[in-house]
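Can't attach files on this board, so I'm pasting raw text. These are the components:
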Amino acid sequence: MYTQGLYEIIKKEQIAKDTFDLTISCGKLSELAKAGQFVHISVPGFFLRRPISICNIDKENGTIRIVFQIKGKGTDVLSKFETGEKLDLLGPLGNGFKLLDPDKKVITIGGGIGTPPMLEVAKYYGENATEISGFRTKELVILQDDFKAQGNKTILCTDDGTAGEKGFVTDALSVSIEKEKPDFIYACGPTVMLKAVSEIAMNNKIRCQISLEERMACGVGACLGCAVKMKVLGNEFYGHVCKNGPVFYSEEVIL
Amino acid sequence: MSDLSVNFCGVDMKNPLITASGAYGYGREYVDLYPISAIGGISTKGTTLNVKDGNPPPRIAETPSGMLNSVGLQNGGLERFISVELPNLEKQDIAIIANIAGGTIEECVELVSKLEGTSVDMIELNISCPNVKQGGAAFGTNRDCAAEITSAVKRATSKPLMVKLSPNVTSISDIAKAVEAAGADALSLINTLLGMRIDIMSRRPILKNNVGGLSGPAVFPIAVRMVWQVANAVDIPVCGMGGISCAEDAIEIMMAGANCFQIGAVMFNDPYAPVKIIDGLNEWCEKNGVKNISEIVGTVKPW
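---
Top answer:
Structure tokens for the assembled complex are below.
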């Protein structure tokens, strides 16, 4: 179930270099939203909507948060929207993360601008979630205080060592698996990271879901544009990020 | 309320709006927003005899006022269409146009033969898909091939046959005349225009297929011109499409000579577009004293 409408931005913050955090009052959309789903945003002057993952859902206040980075001309225009202005959102779209009993131990992994969707899933598990976040460098680090505020353990890595540990999330993941013995792993980030995380999860026999992105048009499964190679019960075929995803079990997709 | 109903090749539709093949699936994706019965008809996702995987991603590239796609006719095959999708469409009170695509004449003939006796109201023969290696535009860009496949398919079906034309040709009127002479009951145009975008940092085409079909408002003036040329060249009805994004566009393409029209890419931008366009047609007709929408067909007064 999804909806579409013009919704007011009630808070805007720049939280890192080229990275913006919008809180949007969107009533029914917020009520329907689940961790891991996305909204499809119309940007004035651009023909196609921009799919952006939902970072946080506050059903009580009827709001969602989206965190995005300026990647091109469309997100640049989006970053110019101010508090009080309205955005055309279609959503919530996609399938969202599988949530276990909140007593289970999980590891959530965010790579760069793949970190925001981890916030809502980690919120559900509270202190049973360990968030491993990786960024290229200090000035891109986001959301660490948000994870801590909701009780999650956090491990921060940067490629250049300017914040947290120097190294990749995959190094931290192997250590955390030993320590936490997690029941489930969630990840979103660059494809190379997702590949590595999926492999580590498989080697440790831990179920793992990853959130993917692909160039998208309709967002609802009608146009079949956002194809991703899937493998289910030995059969290979093209599924679609908007409808079969954006969240997939790691063994279901061929990256 | 004005009368928006049209009779297209013997098929009654409550309004002239048909959702275009490839843009509306089999009509299941937008029911959260409005009932599918709002539209006049659906041209289904291009259906082939067997399951077709489609092209590798990326399949989508944005363009100024439009987009390129290279989906490549991904679909679940005819059996699935008949057993799973058709029963759902039958319940909707809309005209069902089965868009079929085959790699060979024989496959197209088999497709329509198997649709005999089903609730499909009309066949739309796709001879213009730019994204498949076999069939597709290979049929639609050559006058003799277009005529040959039309005549073979026409012989194999008792349903009205509409042939979807490619704009990627020197003279679309010549193809239209050849297809009419071969027995087509109607024509639909335009399919997408072949285009390309390149990522200047990686120096790679954005589409994995390198090239793809351009659609959206960017192509609308070309669609109007081609509909006008074709409607003047043939005596069979025409279904116009290509970049229609509002009621005024729909009126314009009908004045150019289209008896009904299809919308596609606009729905990716505004999923409510079908409802808004139908409301807009009603409003415009009322304001301008048009009792039945068909009155405006072909009424452009060229200089």
